[in-house]
Amino acid sequence: MMKEENLEEASGDTVEEHKSKRGFCGCCCIPIHWFKMLATEMHWSFVLGVLVVYGISQGLGGALNRVGTEYYMKDVQKVQPSEAQVYGGITSIPWLVKPLWGLLTDVLPIFGYRRRPYFIFAGFLGVISMLLLSLHEKLHLVLALMSLTAGSAGVAIADVTIDACVAQNSINHPSLAADMQSLCALSSSIGALVGFFMSGIFVHLIGPKGVFGLLIIPAGLVFLIGILLDEPCMPNFDYRQVNQRFIDAGKAMWTTLKCPDVWRPCLYMYISIAVSLDIHEGMFYWYTQDSKDGPSFSQETVGFIFSIGSVGSLLGAILYQNVLKDYPFRDLLFWTQLLFGLSGMLDLILVLRLNLKFGISDYFFIVIDESVFRMIGRLKWMPLLVLSAKLCPLGIEGTFFALLMSIDNVGLLSATWGGGFLLHVLKVTRTNFDSLWLVILIRNVLRVSPLCLLYLVPRGDPNSSFLPAEFLETKEGTETQATENIELVSLINDVDGK
Questions:
Q1: Whole-number Å distance between alpha carbons of 114 and 231
Q2: 3-state secondary structure the chain
Q3: Where are the transmembrane segments (predicted)?
Q4: Which of 122, 389, 471, 479 is deepest in the core (most CB within 10 A)?
């Protein structure tokens, strides 16, 4: 009897152990099965394209490029903080014309292909620009700016093109649309985390020009996607239709923008972004300057700080998705804009060195500062993205969304140049930071000023419709080719990556 009980106990322990092992292995295999499923349903080249463009080119490459560029301007070109702000705005110009790239990939096939040639061109542009920056010993500032702008254009064109592929596959496989958005978001977030974590180490070991040399790899992979992508050829495309399609899309967008229910929220979005002045370069020069008055952070520390900021941004997106997404736009924007202004006071405490009086180290305090700033910035940005999606009329949803994102990017450019102008006026230089506290204070006041314009935002919740009925109905006889909508921008895209 005892032997039988012992055998039962032993067999029970074995079964439990087998179940736990199978459960652990099952959890590890879920992502693999998920990738296999996506690759089977939509071809492995598409999945690889998303991983390369979102994860490697924009995520990892974007993080390396940001940190490398900041140290390149500071240590190699030796420009002032205000000048670095202006130059950063110039390199972002290719992102302002995203609708142009979108329309080109949509209506202008090359050699019978609508996507592959644009990936090849984007990768080629990135490789050439990064080669020039990394190999030239003393590149003139104008040529350096041109190379950085060309590299930015390569990333922007690849971004628009992969968004077109995601849009088309979302229409062809509607049940997998959410999975594709998750793939885009996860790739971008993980790539940014890894990139920022490694950026400081690479800048320390090989310098900013060496980092530009490493960025040849992401650009080369984008070029490879253009060769490998599975796409049908259209040999008999009628190029006489191109002009008419451009004209039709332009007319439809202009008609929509004239609607008060559309231009009023667009005006608020632009102003709320433009007046939130970006003074990042001033702060960057201050906390990396080797002096007794500042923290004197190393390259590795800067990279780690930015990676923690990426975590804060991801937490903000998760918080919005699970808690705040059903709140009315106006109420949510009021609190996020107010908190966005108050969060800037952490920079003021850091620059005035008040944190040291409370016994809080610079390293710990700036990690908190960056995390809070990125999280609140994400919470402020998410409802604006959702509102933008609600303002898109049927038939031109993708291109019009790209237009709205370009308006927001113009706001970011205005904030960048406005911040540079403020740094210049108050004489914040590479070595003089006496007025930096005043710059921060002015910026914080301007951050809360958009609260006076909240009446431009509709009162409804995200589940409401804001467009008039005529924009929500497709007119009979109008050709609305949904498969050619160029952009299905993920609502999780980081505003840091544009």
A1: 8
A2: CHHHHHHHHHHHHHHHHHHHHHHHHHHHHHHHHHHHHHHHHHCHHHHHHHHHHHHHHHHHHHHHHHHHHHHHHHHHCCCCHHHHHHHHHHHCHHHHCHHHHHHHHHHCCECCECCHHHHHHHHHHHHHHHHHHHHCCCCCHHHHHHHHHHHHHHHHHHHHHHHHHHHHHHHHCHHHHHHHHHHHHHHHHHHHHHHHHHHHHHHHHHHHHHHHHHCHHHHHHHHHHHHHCCCCCCCCCCCCHHHHHHHHHHHHHHHHHCCHHHHHHHHHHHHHHHCCCCCHHHHHHHHHCCCCCCCCCCHHHHHHHHHHHHHHHHHHHHHHHHHHCCCCHHHHHHHHHHHHHHHCHHHHHHHCCHHHHCCCCHHHHHHHHHHHHHHHHHHHHHHHHHHHHHCCCCCCHHHHHHHHHHHHHHHHHHHHHHHHHHHHHCCCCCCCCCCHHHHHHHHHHHHHHHHHHHHHCCCCCCCCCCCCHHHCCCCCCCCCCHHHCCCCCCCCCCHHHC
A3: 44-64, 118-135, 141-162, 183-205, 211-229, 302-320, 332-352, 384-404, 410-429, 436-457
A4: 122
Tokens of 349: 């405490």
Provide mean pLDDT across the span 238-250: 74
Compute the distance between CA of residue 62 and CA of residue 215 in angstroms, rounded to an integer: 9
Stated pTM of the model: 0.73
Q: 266-305 burial string, b = 16+ CB within 10 Å, else e? A: bebbbbbbbbbbbbbbbbbbbbbbeeeebbebebbbbbbb
| Beta carbons within 8 Å of 202's beta carbon, 6+ residues apart | 64, 68, 210, 211, 214
pLDDT confidence of residue 490: 39
Which numeric CATH code is attached to 31-497?
1.20.1250.20
The residue ranking higher by pLDDT, 384 or 152, is 152
pLDDT for 7: 45
Cβ-based burial of 470 (10 A; exposed 0-12, middle 13-18, buried ≥19): exposed
Count CB neighbours of 210 within 10 A: 13
CB atoms within 10 A of CB 322: 8
Tokens matching residue 498:
């544009």
Res. 467: pLDDT tops 80: no
